[in-house]
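Sequence in, structure out. First:
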Amino acid sequence: EGLAFHQIELLKKLATLNDTNGSHCNVKVLLVHPSSLLRIQWEQTAPQETLGYPPKKQEIDMLQAGDSLVTSWLRGTQEAQMLLASQGLTPIHMVTEENEKEKKPATLLKSLQQTIADGICSTENVYLQDESVRIHRCHDLSRQAEVLHDALLHSFQHHKDLAPHDVLIVSPRISELAPHLEAVFSRKLTGKSHDIELPLVIADRGIREVSAGAELLVALLKLVGSRCSVEDMLAVATHHLVRGYYDIDDNTLEVWKRCIERTRIRWGIDGPRRKRDGLDQPELAAHTWWQGLERMLLGILLPDGTPEVVLGGVVPLTGVDTSDIESLAPLLSIVRVIDAFDRLVTNTHSVLDWCNHIEQALIQLVGDDTDELEVAIDELEQLRRCSTETRVPYHDIKTILITTLTAAVGHQPLRTGAITATSMIPLRAVPFRVICVAGFDEDVAESSANDSDDLVERQQLLGDSDPRINVRRSFLDCILSARNQLIITCTGMSVSTNVSLPLITPLAEFVDFVGRHGVPLQSRNGEEYSDVEVFHPRHACSHKNFQIHGIRPDIVWSHDQKALHVAKVLGATPQPVRPRSTLPPPRTLLELTSLAAFMHDPLWPFVRETLAINPWRNDDVEIPATLPLALSQSEQRELRDNYIYRFLNSDQSKEFEKIWTQSVQADGDVPIWGFGEAAIQEITAFTEAVVQQTNKDGLSLMNRQAEMVRVEVNNVQISGTLQISKDDSTSLIFLSPGAKTTAQFQRPKYLALGQLLLAMAAGIPITRACVYSQHEKWSPNAVDAKGKPRKVVMVREVTLDTSINSQTAKNLLGTLCDLYQQAAASAYSSFGKAAAEFLTDQNKSKKTFSSFVSHKSFEKSLEVVVYGRGPVFENVFLDHERHKKFFKPYVDLTYFKPRTNIYSPE
């Protein structure tokens, strides 16, 4: 890396200081110059002296003598030399002894090193077919770790006196690579006489990474004084030390997450403390931790009922009972500890007092009988030793401790007695017999986009740091420090397509550099690559890893016995397996809701019942530390259904609407500051309108009778509850507010059909099912093109064809039950209309299949659960006869007359 101007100025200042004897300090700086010949050449182009300020950075002279890679990669060294000259400083150079230089390199690595030292690639350099330099192309970081492990085992076999401390692994992505290295290098391999395990030490580790107590302390310091988001609070509350002290199991965590989600906690311990973050609304307690906890506790103590504001303006949470108090008690205790600590941050205290408060909070969270806090307490103790009575703010203590605990502990001694893995530090010719550069890919050499207003970037001066130059110089140091072997691993293969990927620019430049030393090209899949590049298969259990010449000439690459066993199993001739029935036990009882779900989607029985998979996915989206100003579709649906249920069971007065509105505003169920007014108005207006519409139709929602009906067909009991109108005993009433569109109406339509068939089979004189839903184009105050208010409620009437009688209904239900049993045993996927079209026109079916898979709704379908994100038409419908045999009756039995809701099976 280059020498910066401010570093030179600092050294000058140090040299002017006087020691205890009154004489000037003697400051000596040791700089390593990789090439003495280039140094002499650059001395001839030294800039004029500009004492006190650095000269502008000049473009590198591409015509200067020397290898293009060496001169460009040593740009930082050249700038440091020029900068010293501009400040009137003339370094003293130690000349390398002649006997230390090899006239005829014995390996490719030695040849590269001589070119760097001389600055020019000698015409005498010829490619020596040795293993001193190799670039291993892998598919990802984990595979790089496995390949590196095998490469080092070969190195230990080739270099008989090689010891672990002679090996160094450097990586610009050491934090990502370290877990993979530890997992791979911890494996014990069985040798001829003893087990083999390569010792490994990760050098660049912060205190937090090696101490659980320090990790907890960092999380605590970040939480206290912050917005107290759900993520930050749970980072402390669910830390394994805290969980162990409070005996918190997974069931307890599930209760926490459920209650936190239902109380919609977002940020802030309480209302008044939000002022620290700019929200001066002390009376606004919605979405705070204390309001959420109070709602949970009141919900346990009080019986469920209509939500309304009670003690202290809190609305009790429904759906919790006394059994949850054991789970919520630890959360309450943890928040109390955080609350007490958080109240201190608004005032200043001495460093000693701060350390005492922090230590007390830690002990309250994990107890005082654990050794895990030793490192954290030691850090606090060190801070106490240098404390004074000066009062300081919490931010200063927090910054000092977090910086200390998260920073790397300094580059540990590279001679650890084991194989050392470290970051891409400047080695400055520190010798190692084998150096491995791992994870040299992706964005390690890319520069980020700079702000156009950045004056430093607009006017570059000598000594200004350049990440692109620094990473190349660090890589050059690795080349110079290696004595016997240089091993490079990178992500050079695509995981998805298995094609080779372009190397990053520094590595591609290095490949060109070795090419100028006589390294030939090899051909692979029509492309040409350097002979130093090695291509590895995707998996460690690939057969190539265990074949002579599979990866490298004359050797078997892999040493992993377990991977060999897997490879043998994968390559063995499949043994005939005696077929056995995969049919689940025949169902003797079938709920009508399940049958309706099957008629809507034939995959439902296989996914939901046989596999017992819930396709609802929430990808654990982080809860934002902001006040919600809008409701999601699921939140508004839950709020609407809850209101309708309670409204129909109340006196339906304006007073009830007022109490409900106050409660959902107080507990944060709707957005604050008027952002939730539209949602409240839509819910209450639709409820009032649907009640009026059903009354007008003579099918009052309050006069419904739930009748349990059970019919036996083909030895299967079909059970369901019919919602029969007391005003019209021939009508069923369905309330499905969300069935606004035709697609949303499909599920309620098949449920209504199921109930009609069940009623007909049972001999109950039901002739129609009325489905009430919110009109698609309606919203409060919406008007049509003529200025008239839009219709609020949409009524759809589902009926059976007049030819269907009681016996016909039984036969239809029996056939549907048989198909249900088949669908429960094996996956039958409709892929929209593709399965139905497959019966008559396979080309059209294939187009429909492609459209369905490419649509965004495919991600939420049951098909993606069974076939993944890349299903193939030919694989899905591989067994033509099997699919036709199932879907022909299925399509016939789920048929409605076009553009009507009249069920007319063909």
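Second:
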Amino acid sequence: MRIRLLGNIDVVLDGAVLPVPGLRRRALLAALALQRGAVVDKDLLVGIVWNKDAPSTALNTLQSHVSYLRDLLGDRGVIQYRRPGYILDVEGTDTDVELAENLFDQAVRTTQLTDRARDLRAVVDLWRGPALADVAGLPWLEEQADRLEHLHGRAGHALLETRFALGEHAQLMPELEQHLRDNPFDEQMHGNLILGLYRAGRQADALTAYQRLRTTLAEELGIEPSPDLRELVTAILRQDPALLRPPESLELSGPPIPAQLPAPGATFTGRQVDLDRLDTLLATERGSLAIGTIAGTAGVGKTTLALQWAYRVRDQFPDGQLFADLRGYDAGPAVRPVDALTGFLAALGVAGDQIPVDVDQAAALYRTMMAGRRMLILLDNARTADQIRPLLPGEPGSLVLITSRDRLSGLVACEGALPLPLNALTEAEAHQLLTNVLGEARVITESDATAELARACAFLPLALRIAAANLAWQPHRRIDDYLAELRIDRLRMLTIDDDPEQGVAAAFDASYQALTVPARRLFRLLSLVPGLDLTIPAAAALSGIEVADAQVLVGRLASAHLLDQPASGHYAWHDLLRAYAADRSDAEDSEADRVAASRRLYDWYVEAVVGAADLLYPHMLRLSRTASAHIFADRAAALDWLDTERANLVAAVRQATVPEAACVLADALRGYFHLRRRSTDWLVVGESALNAATALDDVRAQAAARHSVGTAYRCLGDSPSALQHYDEGLRLTRLSGWQEAEATALGNLGIVYQAQGRLKAAVGRLTLAIALDRRIGRTAGLANNLGNLAAVYLDQGSLEAAVDCFDEALELNRRSGSRHGQALALTGLAQAYREAGRVDDAIDRFTEAMQYCVEIGDRDGQAIVHIGLGEVARDQGRTADAREHAHAALTLARDGGDPRTEALALNLLASAVSDPHEALRHNTRAHELAERTTVPRSQIQAMLGLATATLRLGDLAQAGAHAERATTLATHCGYRLLEAEARATSARIHLRLGEPQQATG
């Protein structure tokens, strides 16, 4: 049985020709036949057979087509399933493609002209039309068809040469003339024509044919005929008798097959995603030249990846591979396009004296020589698109792969190149690279140090290889010891002692020196940025230039891969580039310039954060009350900016390069942290500001920092720590005469006393705060402290007093326009109304409060309102709604890291689920969180939740114990509402125990 692909696809079985109906079936048979003897993955077959149009049922349809082909071939064992795909068995079947390839190889090897002519004629005769003619439109098969047609052309060319050598020049004249009309620059065949005419006694026609070729080459390509042709004409003019004797043997002529790829790296690791992306180049549509540009920072492994992939696919390019290192970033001059063309033309068989010195003429000749060829061209270390363009073939079929530190966007835009950005290795890939060099035993022994080494090298392949090489020559040295030195001076340690030009710093030098002077300056100043990334406005502030100019410079740095762009509008760099920038700044910038740059950046951060604060929480007491610029369009834009820049702002305060600005920044961020509850960052910012303020001996700034840190601890439920900072903050406000802050400090102490269950002390502090606010006329502080006093009254069960205070706080906040204040007052009112049984009023207030919380981005406020609405829904029997509110509150609380609110949400969820075991899990977790907070109110609520859960499970003794502890603590602290709830729970338990007297006692 033979499967025929050189023409329409069919099968010859027992002398009968069997057509294969259906495009997909023909494509499937061709794909298997072209890879006969190999397992072809099902997913790959789907891609070949359907390209991008695969239906959702493609795999099932593929199985159906396989079944059909098995029946057609008459032997169901011919196509076998082997995980993960199918294989066409090699026994009892062959293909005309394999026969053609084998015959051509045999013809190339034989020295007998008659045998060679016979084999080549057999190859040519196997074609019944264009290869794979009836599966047009499927890219993979079209690529295979191109390859087969190229083989057909080579066989025909070789057959003409062989027949001519056998003396068949007279019979060949018509074929030669037709061939030359189709291939006017085929000098080898022109030589055969000229020699054939001479042997036929037509010397004048032979010389005319030569002159005609010479004129064509001069006019079209600007070159002379080859030395071999010129020698042939000289021999004709001498009437050399040797010209009349055909050769006894002939080596097949044809274009040379260059193989210029350097050896790939021995320690190549990973990069599977990048290799897969490169594979997409092989599927480039017919009619276009495949171009790929691998771009990335120095040392990221561009050349290594390109060579590794090139070696994997080189067999798909039968006419060979060309390689040129364009040296775009070397210290010396880059390779000129004409120099690269000279090397390529020589490799393609053009004699040195025939290679033009003009770049345009050389490029034209190069495109001519590349016509009809399928080659892989690797252009390494390119710097500009103009360096590349003359080296691009003029016809489709070949593939050009380029590596560069620049994006070469012009090639992408104008030539349709596929951009392939290359990033650092993944953590796993970096670990494997170190393992490959250092050995598995050493890496396992110091696994933590190995992971840290990879991070210290920024997962950059060049840095990893240098570090590994240095360690490999010192097998007894601990990786930890090497790391200790590396942390001191990364750039020095990432250098090869006997080859310093291969070090990380040397690689960065080339990219740095290629920049303009302004771009170099900005790059150096980037080392002063305290955060992980920056925006273009921040870069403009840092360098003291206009935003438009900064955009150009930042774009240039990003294009040169000295900056990455991890998100829209944000630019970052890895630690090795930061170290290199710092090294260059130390060498080239004065201390005064660096200080001025840092101050400009901090001033810009202050202006932006204060501007956001003025929009989001304008009534909050802050250190700086200077008018801010209108940077943000609205509150949403301000909050979004703070969310995005949070890590950079935290880093700026922590580093405190400009301590005065750091103090103002930290204080202006307090309201943001109160809204978003990023407690870890809040503490870092507050404590860093306290250190900076102490170093400055700025008493007000110290008071503000104490206030911020105390509030962060309070939100975490750590009342003792909060109290310590608030007490010291109160002392500092009185020392500095800052009365507005004194009132705030008194109010904060009242809040902590309330949390500790010291309700009388809380009322005392809050009453003092309110009196001071009234005396100095600070409306915002008065409203806030009234709301806090109302919350204490609510805990004490004084509902009427609580409502009065909440009402006054709400009215004051409405007058001042404080959305945050209104949200707090409305939430408090809603809670008071719920306790008073005014459910509809409670829902209205909760709903209005939620609108404000969402508008200002107050996540903890949203969580508290969800809990309130959920409790109302639960009380009304709407348990599904209660669960929905509980889940929403739980998500918000966990996102903000507030254990008190999370515990409240868990208790609500437990009370709204039907499964008592699930309820107990939620209550147990709530109790664990409450115990961590040292807040009695949270602990009481958690114990009540446990009492209810264990009661539902029938564990009356345990339920009673929980209820008793809750009652005792609530009574001691004076939480009258919670005490009432605890006593009601105890009563239910006593009734279940059959103890009615205790239930009413």
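Remark: The first strand starts at residue 2 and ends at 4.
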